[in-house]
């Protein structure tokens, strides 16, 4: 009997279909898809041994070795895990790297127990190629409004209030500055690209006139926007969000101090404040060369003063003084120069209310 195969990758993206990935953990950790769960048919060492056998003696010998490594008890254990997963995710699809031996065997084993699951034609590789092709094609034909503004102006806050947006920093799990790391690690480069492709495809099928993104560099932390996609994004038009220095300092304090510490507490508990301060100091060290020695020492001392008085009533004002100096003396001159020299046409400037109203008019 011919078991079901499918290459309807678009449906998987639009429905965020659960996926059963039977590749080895080392493969899964290098790159995976949204809603994919790794329940491997071979572990990392077994995969290495089978791969070596394949290179030395061919496919038949590799399959025979794989079967001997799994044995009956291993097969029963794996099938039980897959059945438990499929009980919770009955619409899931199955794949391995190329959609061949491993996923084919997994599909047959499940079929023996009365469970039919659809296997992805071409596996991970074909689906990944589909996503990368779609990213390039969709970004090329999508008109972008690029939301710019000085650091702390509230661009992310505004993006969350709009419907026709993709939050690149959220996908990258990074705030896009020297102090922008979150407690949880960024996704791998491949995961970032896959997740961005999902968002682009889903956006494309909502039929908006314009895509709104934040004005980003080619990289967001350690995550790089694919060059062709980035170039397409930068063909758009620039809108500048104007916010007072005092309000920007307050927004930055809420995000980088108050909210950040809550995240650190979830991970580090009683050590949260110390770990957070260490990471802030590491961020300062990364920009030391640009700051210059004198300014670096002054900003470091000001932060240490705020940190040592963290529990006092003066702490907030000290942190905001430190933030205002960073914004005014470091981030603003860099961003102002970037805007002065940009080739992207600036079509509007205004505060949050005015910018929001302008963007909404572009959809009418």
Structure description:
The structure is a single chain. The chain is α/β, with parallel strands linked by helices and 364 residues long. It folds into two domains: 5-130, Rhodanese-like domain (Oxidized Rhodanese, domain 1, 3-Layer(aba) Sandwich); 142-361, 3-Layer(aba) Sandwich (Rossmann fold), CATH 3.40.50. The chain is built from 16 helices and eleven strands. It has a five-stranded parallel sheet with strand order 1-5-4-2-3. The protein has a four-stranded parallel sheet with strand order 7-6-10-11. Helix 2 links the parallel strand 2 and strand 3 (36-38). Helix 11 crosses helix 12 (272-286). The chain is globular. The mean pLDDT is 93. Residues 13-136 form the Rhodanese domain. This is tRNA 2-selenouridine(34) synthase MnmH. One of its GO terms (molecular function) is tRNA 2-selenouridine synthase activity. Keywords: Selenium.
Features:
globular; 364 residues; alpha/beta; Rossmann fold; 11 strands
């Amino acid at each position: 009997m011919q078991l079901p195969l499918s290459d309807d990758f678009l449906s998987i993206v639009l429905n965020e279909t659960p996926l059963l990935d039977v590749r080895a953990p080392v493969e899964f950790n290098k790159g995976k898809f949204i809603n994919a769960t790794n329940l491997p048919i071979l572990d990392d060492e077994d995969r290495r041994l089978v791969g070596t056998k394949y290179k030395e003696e061919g496919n038949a010998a590799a399959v025979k070795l794989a079967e001997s490594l799994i044995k009956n008890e291993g097969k029963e254990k794996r099938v039980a895990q897959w059945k438990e997963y499929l009980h919770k995710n009955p619409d899931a699809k199955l794949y391995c790297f190329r959609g061949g031996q491993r996923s084919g065997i997994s599909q047959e084993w499940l079929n023996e127990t009365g469970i039919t699951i659809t296997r992805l034609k071409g596996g991970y590789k074909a689906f990944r190629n589909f996503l990368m092709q779609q990213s390039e094609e969709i970004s090329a034909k999508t008109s972008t409004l690029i939301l710019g503004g000085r650091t702390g102006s509230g661009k992310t806050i505004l993006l969350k209030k709009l419907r026709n947006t993709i939050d690149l920093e959220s996908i990258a799990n990074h705030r896009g500055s020297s102090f922008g790391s979150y407690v949880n690690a960024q996704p791998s480069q491949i995961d970032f690209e896959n997740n961005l492709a999902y968002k682009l495809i889903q956006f494309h099928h909502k039929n908006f006139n314009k895509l709104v993104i934040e004005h980003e560099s080619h990289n967001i932390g350690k995550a790089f926007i694919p060059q062709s996609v980035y170039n397409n994004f930068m063909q758009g038009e620039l809108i500048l969000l104007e916010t007072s220095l005092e309000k920007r300092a307050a927004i930055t304090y809420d995000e980088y101090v108050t909210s950040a510490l809550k995240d650190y507490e979830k991970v580090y508990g009683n050590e949260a404040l110390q770990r957070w301060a260490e990471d802030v100091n590491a961020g300062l060290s990364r920009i030391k060369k640009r700051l210059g020695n004198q300014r670096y020492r002054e900003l470091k001392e000001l932060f240490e003063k705020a940190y040592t008085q963290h529990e006092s009533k003066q702490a907030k004002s000290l942190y905001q003084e430190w933030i205002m100096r960073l914004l005014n003396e470091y981030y603003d001159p860099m961003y102002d120069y970037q805007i002065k020299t940009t080739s992207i046409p600036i079509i509007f400037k205004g505060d949050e209310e005015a910018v929001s109203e302008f963007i909404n008019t572009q959809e009418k």
